[in-house]
What does this fold into?
Amino acid sequence: MAIDENVEAIRGFMDGITYPVLIDAEHLLTDLYAISNVPSVVLIDEDDRIVQPNWNAYATDTFKEYTGIDSGEQLELIRRWVIDGTALISPDEAREAVGHLSVDEEHAHLLFRIANYLRRSGDEQGASRNYDLAAELAPHDWTIRRAMMPLRGGDPFGAEFFALAEEYAAAGRPFHGIAARSE
It folds into this structure.
């Protein structure tokens, strides 16, 4: 699931992918599942039960230098779950692992959606004001801070991204969910 409204930008990342890719331009999934960072992986079994909530695993080593996370280890954990049902945590632990968004985070998500609506309606000033308020209320929520970069004309992999990454690291890399780990 891509949380982006630019379908063409997503198409470039879909080369070689053989499964459906959905786009959540309204960020409904991030609100519903308290996703505050991307990428996030959610493992759902054949009975539609979430067996592994919000987990920041990576499919490649593109960000290994930054995260310290080996994608091979994360992919192996997923393979073990698919092949023999070995989950990282118990169902009870899964229910408790993510936690709820704080009132400020919920407010920030709402302001972000309002900003997107205003931007699409041509009210750049109103959009900018709401983006700023959302970032202030949820300064380490990548689904807001990084997502707004291209919407405001910024480069989501440029200097602003690296400044955000430094802020995030300095704050201890807060994450709603289970942090990936290298064994």
About this structure: The beta strands are 41-44, 50-55. The chain has two domains: 7-97, 103-170. Residues 7-97 form one domain. The longest strand covers residues 50-55.
